[in-house]
């Protein structure tokens, strides 16, 4: 093995240093634990465009109303690449949550990063595991995305009582703010309706996964008018997803416990709409969700899919509460909307770190050595955000439509990490014949080898506006901008033997910055059923602060990189997106075709820079990337009863310059390298055939297909972030079928998910075995699942 092999370089970073009169310490230091939370040690933005799934309805239906420009208008007139998943499509395709919905839209991706496979969404390959988020996530008019801290990704709302999901591709910073660099995803609820009759819907599902445990779901929704001027709408949701991963004996491989990864979710929501006066409505709402998992659905590469022998169970929970108050007033053709909301999320996870000590100390000779009783990594991530927005819209019936408003958000994000190793002293004594205290120092109270605390406080204040001017009956010019002032502060404290045998002093860093995000679009309708448009827009995400890099340990690495010290903070990065698109809509023929070509130029990318000699890292603004691609979507009715939809996405994402961290051995990425986690091709298709059987009764047969080409998880060799064990990601092909009966008030269907029983590896990570590289932690598609679903409306 050559000396510059990335894993040999990493091994050097983990060596014990023995100096006269001093205890040996880990040169890797406190950042070692933080590095373990990202899937590539040095890199480059990832963009796992896992855009699989059944084809989404195309936003070309002349009768489909969307709010992509923060005002209600026909989708066929919106000069944005927008995909819409309505309630019927979500139920027919069996979509249960936002992560599953991501598989229904081309160029909408779901990536999993860190040792816990934390999920993050991306659009058009714009994704990064560090810094602020790149995709805007909204529940109604409330943003809920958060900075990734490695252990918890984006919240994953379960989709019940949802009117539609709008996926807006391309930068949406003008109307949706920082973080919407690649695009925005909006989950829009069904509102209470005082004019509607009382209604209810009961739904249930039972399913069995091959080689796994049963799953079941129950849902109840109620809508009640209250005296003509008010209405209440609410619901309850519960889901148990049976496990399919088995725990085996580490020695003989016999199964000890089956289906250990059961997941349980409960959710509730309620909204009250009150018409206080003519043109004035008040709508308080609340949403709650809690998910608990008995064990992570991860397995070991050495044992194959769905088998693991981790000595420590890995249970976790993720809960959020979202109360909001929306007030709308209409006066003289102007609609004013005020939204006040609070988002409170609490994510807790226990994970197995039993391999890390021996890997750091013994390197490739670790041979699976683990402390008796294992190593427990406990993390808690708490996100709390107060959001307020005041928006005005007018001119819908005139040649000049407009939107303007003010936005404010104050967020608090806190990470707590404790690594407990009660058997570490016994392991050290067996390996070295000396005590843990003499070699590395004492454990902290509670047998902790590491304790870390990180607190991030962010504020944003922004003014925004957009004008749509109908220059001529078939020609419209729209232009808008957003001016954002953001501030961030970070407090960090780490201690324990993984912090160098002692601790780091508490560090505080803060920064403020101002960003301007313009957008301009020109649309033309040469015919009533044809829309053509061209647009340019700028997206950005705010900067942040770095955890400390000790000069005493990393001075040589920093000098080799031409730096006296690591930066205490990093700035915002930004991109420009240029797009040409069009849409044909012929409702009378059941035909709609939409497509877009785009080029994205991303500069000053927030990237994690790995220091190979000491193992620490920091984030800085480095490099450029260019994403070029297209989306093409179509829907047609070849003959009565049959509807066919299809979508094709392509993204060619490549770095535009070579980056090094001091010398050829410090290569970060080479010019022309593909951005990791971005499959170039994605394709989705669905066919739905309906057959009338009798008066008010019909049958339907639906098939779905999803495909994503192979991708890369790390930079190519010889970059220091290259990892040959996890480098290549497999292509994915998945098929689903559904056969159902439907009447006016009830529906029932048999379904099969993953018909071909594909065992595609969707996540692979070697960060907890940094020296040997094996076994990797992996996850795969759930095996073939067969089930029955039914609903009753009254």
How is this fold's topology laid out?
Blueprint: H1 6-13, E1 16-17, E2 25-26, H2 31-35, E3 65-66, E4 73-74, E5 82-86, H3 87-92, H4 98-101, E6 108-113, E7 118-123, E8 135-139, E9 142-143, E10 162-169, H5 173-176, E11 183-189, E12 199-209, E13 214-225, E14 230-241, E15 246-248, E16 255-257, E17 263-277, E18 280-293, E19 299-300, E20 307-308, E21 316-331, E22 334-352, H6 356-362, E23 376-394, E24 400-420, H7 424-432, H8 436-439, E25 448-472, E26 475-496, E27 502-527, E28 530-541, E29 544-545, H9 551-560, E30 569-570, E31 573-586, E32 591-603, E33 606-610, E34 617-621, E35 624-636, E36 642-655, E37 659-660, E38 667-669, E39 681-694, E40 697-708, E41 711-712, E42 728-729, E43 732-743, E44 746-753, E45 761-765, E46 777-780, E47 785-793
Parallel strand pairs: 8-11, 15-20
Antiparallel strand pairs: 1-2, 3-4, 5-10, 6-7, 8-9, 10-11, 12-13, 12-47, 13-14, 14-17, 15-16, 17-18, 18-21, 19-46, 21-22, 22-23, 23-24, 24-25, 25-26, 26-27, 27-28, 28-31, 29-30, 31-32, 32-35, 33-34, 35-36, 36-39, 37-38, 39-40, 40-43, 41-42, 43-44, 44-47, 45-46
How does this structure look, described?
The chain has 794 residues and is mainly beta. Helices cover 7% and strands 53% of the residues. The protein has 9 helices and 47 strands. The strands form 11 sheets. The protein has a 22-stranded antiparallel barrel. Strands 5-10-11-8-9 form a 5-stranded mixed beta sheet. Residues 1-60 have low confidence and may be disordered.
């Amino acid at each position: 093995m050559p000396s510059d092999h990335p894993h040999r370089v990493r091994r050097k970073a983990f060596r014990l240093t023995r100096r006269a009169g001093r205890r040996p310490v880990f040169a890797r230091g406190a950042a070692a634990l933080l590095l373990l939370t990202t899937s590539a040690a040095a890199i480059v933005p990832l963009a796992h465009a896992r855009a699989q799934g059944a084809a989404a309805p195309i936003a070309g239906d002349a009768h489909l109303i969307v709010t992509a420009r923060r005002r209600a208008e026909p989708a066929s007139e919106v000069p944005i690449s927008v995909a819409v998943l309505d309630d019927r499509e979500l139920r027919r395709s069996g979509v249960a949550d936002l992560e599953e919905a991501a598989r229904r839209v081309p160029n909408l991706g779901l990536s999993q990063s860190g040792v816990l496979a934390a999920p993050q969404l991306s659009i058009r390959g714009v994704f990064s595991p560090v810094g602020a988020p790149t995709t805007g996530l909204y529940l109604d008019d409330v943003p809920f995305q958060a900075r990734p801290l490695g252990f918890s990704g984006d919240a994953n709302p379960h989709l019940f009582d949802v009117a539609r999901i709008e996926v807006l591709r391309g930068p949406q910073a003008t109307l949706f703010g920082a973080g919407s660099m690649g695009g925005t995803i909006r989950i829009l609820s069904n509102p209470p309706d005082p004019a509607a009759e009382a209604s209810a819907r009961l739904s249930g599902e039972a399913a069995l996964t091959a080689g796994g445990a049963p799953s079941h779901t129950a849902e109840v929704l109620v809508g009640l008018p209250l005296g003509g001027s008010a209405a209440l709408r609410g619901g309850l949701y519960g889901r148990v997803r049976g496990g399919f991963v088995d725990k085996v004996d580490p020695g003989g491989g016999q199964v000890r416990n089956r289906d250990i990864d059961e997941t349980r979710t409960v959710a509730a929501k309620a909204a009250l709409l009150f018409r206080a006066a003519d043109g004035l409505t008040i709508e308080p709402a609340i949403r709650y969700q809690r998910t608990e998992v008995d064990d992570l659905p991860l397995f070991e590469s050495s044992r194959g899919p769905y088998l693991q022998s981790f000595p420590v169970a890995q249970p976790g929970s993720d809960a959020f509460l979202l109360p909001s108050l929306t007030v709308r007033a209409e006066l003289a053709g102007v609609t004013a909307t005020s939204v006040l909301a609070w988002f409170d999320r609490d994510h807790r996870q226990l994970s197995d770190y039993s391999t890390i000590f021996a890997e750091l100390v013994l390197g490739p000779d670790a041979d699976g050595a683990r402390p008796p009783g294992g190593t427990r990594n406990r993390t808690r991530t708490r996100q709390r955000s107060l959001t307020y927005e005041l928006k005005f819209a007018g001119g819908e019936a005139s040649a000049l439509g407009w939107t303007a408003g003010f936005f404010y958000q104050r967020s608090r994000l806190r990470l707590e990490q404790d690594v407990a190793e009660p058997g570490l002293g016994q392991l050290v004594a067996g390996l070295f014949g000396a005590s843990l205290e003499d070699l590395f120092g004492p454990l902290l109270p509670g047998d902790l080898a590491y304790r870390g605390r990180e607190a991030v406080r962010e504020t944003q204040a922004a003014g925004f506006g957009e004008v749509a001017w109908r220059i001529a009956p078939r020609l419209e010019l729209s232009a808008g901008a957003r001016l954002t002032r953001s501030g961030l502060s970070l407090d960090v404290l780490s201690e324990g033997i993984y912090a160098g045998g002692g601790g780091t002093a508490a560090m505080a860093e803060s920064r403020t910055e101002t960003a301007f995000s313009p957008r301009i679009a020109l649309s033309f309708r040469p015919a009533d059923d044809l829309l053509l448009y061209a647009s340019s827009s700028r997206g950005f995400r705010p900067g942040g602060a770095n955890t400390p890099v000790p000069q005493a340990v990393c001075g040589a690495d920093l000098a080799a990189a031409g730096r006296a010290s690591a930066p205490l903070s990093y700035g915002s990065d930004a991109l420009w997106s240029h797009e040409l698109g069009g849409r044909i809509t012929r409702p009378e023929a059941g035909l709609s075709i939409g497509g877009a070509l785009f080029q994205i130029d991303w500069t000053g990318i927030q990237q994690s820079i790995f220091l190979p000699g000491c193992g620490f890292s920091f984030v800085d603004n480095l490099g450029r990337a260019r994403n070029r691609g297209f989306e093409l979507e179509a829907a047609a009715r070849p003959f009565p009863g049959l509807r066919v939809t299809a979508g094709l996405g392509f993204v060619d994402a490549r770095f535009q310059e070579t980056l090094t961290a001091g010398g050829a051995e410090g290569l970060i990425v080479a010019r022309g390298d593909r951005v990791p986690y971005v499959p170039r091709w994605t394709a989705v298709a669905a066919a739905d055939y309906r057959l009338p059987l009798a008066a008010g009764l019909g049958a339907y047969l639906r098939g779905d297909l999803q495909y994503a080409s192979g991708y890369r998880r790390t930079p190519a060799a010889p970059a220091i972030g290259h990892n040959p064990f996890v480098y290549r990601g497999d292509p994915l092909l998945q098929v689903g079928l559904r056969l159902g009966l439907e009447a006016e008030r009830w529906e029932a269907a048999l379904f099969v998910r993953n018909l071909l029983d594909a065992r595609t590896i969707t996540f692979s990570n070697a960060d907890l075995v940094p020296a040997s590289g094996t076994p990797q932690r992996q996850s795969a598609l759930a095996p073939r699942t067969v089930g029955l679903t039914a609903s009753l409306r009254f």
